[in-house]
Amino acid sequence: MNNVKKIAMFAAILIVLGVIGSVITFNFKEPTSVTQAEEIDKTDITAIEILSNNERVEIIPSNEQTIKVELSGKSNDKKDKFQVEEKGNTLSIETESRDFKLFDFDFFTKSLTLTVALPEKVYESLKVEIDNGSLEAEDLNITDINAATENGRIALKNIGADTVQVNSSNGKIELDHVKGEITGKTNNGKISLVTESLDRALELDTDNGAINIQTEKEPTNAIFDVRVDNGSIKIFGNSNWDTVVGDGDNIIKLTTNNGSIRVEK
User: Fold this and answer.
1) Which SS3 state, helix, strand or coil, does residue 237 take?
2) Do 204 and 215 meet the contact criterion of CB atoms below 8 Å apart?
3) Residues paired with 84 in a beta bridge
């Protein structure tokens, strides 16, 4: 009886492995080119919302008067597309695939980029949520920025803003000449900031990763609140730094559980 049970169990395992193998083979079909583009001719749009599944998201400035959205790349899913919806002064962009799959192996075959080109002006807000993909935005003026990824890098460059909040569960955060009060958090990843000045509120936090800041000027009015569990700290080359600079109106809070912290000029 025991031998019969063992044989039956072994046969069941082989069947399950065969089904999984068939599904994987089916999903690994040759990816095809995907291109979808849309123009939005509305000058009163002041807020942008983007919801993305598994795409690389790029947000860039444009000399045109219309907002242009394009999804391009390769995928094995013909249903890959995006939807655009206007809600008052807010433009909502969402990528989606409507097919249900018991096993989804699209991340092996997808290589899609969602590009959003915005006419040059000051926008009130930008909100981006990405499941599995990166975000790159540059040369934009947006009052309030809130961006989050589950698995992917966030890179902002030459951004004029009042407040910036960026969060990644798994991915590094790169901030290059981003103005405004900044809050950056990642569970697993390095955080880097290149800036002209540190005289502003700044909070950077990573569980596993280094924090590196390169500034053109040393702060004149700030408090350094810097903490490391496992790693080293150097503020302008010193392991013993001045906690309060000037009146200490701006709090610079830097925290990592596992990694080093460097602030350099």
Assistant:
1) coil
2) no
3) 93
* Amino acid at site 72: S
- Residues 6+ positions from 22 with CB-CB distance below 8 Å: none
Q: In degrees rounded to 5, what are phi and psi of residue 10?
A: -65, -40
- Locate the domains of the chain by residue range: 1-30, 31-146
Give the mean pLDDT of 44-72.
95
> pLDDT tens across 191-207, in order?
999 999 999 999 999 99
**Exposure b/e, 39-48, CB count within 10 A at least 16 = b:** ebeeeebbbb
Measured CA to CA, the distance from residue 221 to residue 234 in angstroms comes to: 19
pLDDT band for position 82 (cuts 50, 70, 90):
confident
What would the two tokens of residue 26 be? 């089916």
Q: Helix, strand, or coil here: 194?
A: strand
Exposure string for 105-134, b = 16+ CB within 10 A, e = fewer? ebeebbebbbbbbbbeeebebbbbbbebbb
